Amino acid sequence: MQFQYDVLIIGAGSAGLSAALTLGRCLRRVLLADGGPPRNEASPGVHGFLTRDGIPPAELLRLGQEQLQQYTTVEMQCLEINEVIPLEKGFRASGCLTTDDTPVSITARRVLLATGVLDVLPPLPGFRELWGRGVLHCPYCHGWEVRNQPLAVYGQGRIVTGLALLVSRWSHDVVVVTNGPGHLTQNARRRLRRQHIKIREEHITRLIGSATDDLECIEFADGSQLERKALFLHASQYQRSSLAEKLGARHTSKGAVWVNSGMQTSVPGLYAAGDTTPGAQQALLAAAAGSRAAIVINEALTREECPR
Ligand SMILES: Cc1cc2nc3c(=O)[nH]c(=O)nc-3n(C[C@H](O)[C@H](O)[C@H](O)COP(=O)(O)OP(=O)(O)OC[C@H]3O[C@@H](n4cnc5c(N)ncnc54)[C@H](O)[C@@H]3O)c2cc1C
User: Fold this and answer.
1) Residues 274-283 pLDDT 10s
2) In the sheet where 230-233 sits, what is the strand order?
3) Which of 121, 166, 225, 308 is 20 to 30 A from 214 (CA-CA)?
4) Residues with Cβ within 8 Å of residue 94, at least 6 apart in sequence
């Protein structure tokens, strides 16, 4: 069978763009399907990305797209893929152009999922509105910007304990806010106390932000307010795309798409990279994973083309 593309990359964030760059440099026929904005769309800047520290997320992707232009075997489409069907040796995928809903169907020898995740925020006023500015997901990405300022860490149990201890690296004024019973063990309370981290277990009614979407204070059910510059939380998350699930690919207990050491999912020929897979989630790591997946895929295709 003649395939239209060597590789279909689904998702054009850091992982997908980086994979497209490496595969383009291998002269591979690639379709890069860009289904919409990246996970960090709400953030003013991507931090910790070597040579691009603080760049707006959209600008990082624009540069990535611009640098792909010289690789003429790489095609990028504003295309949301909604189905991938395994064939005997490859895949058929279908979706719609996001510009005008035109249906598209293509075939590819390999598929790389770089579809990322979505964050689920507590359903309280202010969390979604201040997401990415006053409500932050990761001190490695944003701790420096709010260093030495009054900070809050939201959550319960072991997760909030670990995150609060981590955040105390960036500020000596950290308060854990649990929005009801914190489910903290005596040991957790002791460890927090040792770092001078206070605990507020009252219910939260809302977060109040400034005109620039910085956090100003947390308001509790009794009307009292706690002034804070930012609030960190480990948001729960789910896969942005259900394609891996529909294909029957194995997932980890935390909901990530499982991959082997060669970045292949449990479905032969289907690879995954970036936030969608287990491990630390950062733009630079996603870009590195995309590049690594591209190398592995190119080598698998080369083996197929050059049988022993
Ligand atoms: C608020 C916030 C701030 C952050 N700040 C930083 C930071 O400062 N530094 C840092 O290193 N990291 C930061 N991160 C983490 C960073 O955003 C992610 O690690 C990174 O975006 C992962 O890249 P990715 O390519 O795996 O996924 P994404 O960037 O999320 O890209 C996935 C892409 O796949 C597309 N897609 C999904 N499904 C389909 C489909 N069916 N068809 C076609 N396309 C599809 C999506 O539209 C999206 O464009 C931040 C995250 C958040 C939430």
Assistant:
1) 999 999 999 9
2) 135-136, 230-233, 151-154, 174-177, 198-200
3) 166
4) 81, 82, 83, 103, 104, 105, 106
Structural domain harbouring 80: 5-118+237-305
Do 44 and 182 fall within a single domain? no
In the prediction, which pLDDT does 212 show? 85
Q: Which of 22, 39, 96 to mutate to test the pocket of ligand 1 (most atoms within 8 A of CB)?
A: 39
Q: Where is 289: in which H helix or E strand?
A: helix 283-305
C-alpha 308 to ligand 1 mean position (Å): 40
Query: In the chain, which stretches have pLDDT less than 50?
Result: none
Between strands 151-154 and 204-209, the pairing is unpaired
E strand residue ranges, 88-203: 90-97, 103-113, 117-120, 135-136, 151-154, 174-177, 198-200
pLDDT of residue 119: 97
- Quick check: 147 and 242 in contact, CB under 8 A? no
Q: What is the pLDDT of residue 184?
A: 98
Rounded to whole angstroms, the Cα distance separating 207 from 214 reads 10
Q: Given this model, what pLDDT does residue 204 score?
A: 98
- 139 and 287 share one domain: no
Are 103 and 131 in the same domain? Answer: no
- Give me 235's structure tokens: 């948001």
* Distance, C-alpha 31 to centroid of its chain: 21
SS3 assignment, position 133: coil
Give the end of a domain, one of 190, 214, 233. 233
d(Cα 29, Cα 70) in Å, to the nearest integer?
13
> Which residues line the pocket of ligand 1, CB cutoff 6 A?
10-16, 33-40, 42-43, 46-49, 80-81, 114-116, 119, 131-132, 137, 141, 240-241, 243, 274-275, 281-284, 286
Residues 6+ away with beta carbon under 8 Å from 269: 86, 89, 90, 91, 109, 110, 111
Strands 135-136 and 230-233: parallel
Q: Please state, in angstroms and rounded to a whole number, the distance separating the CA atoms of residues 272 and 263.
A: 6
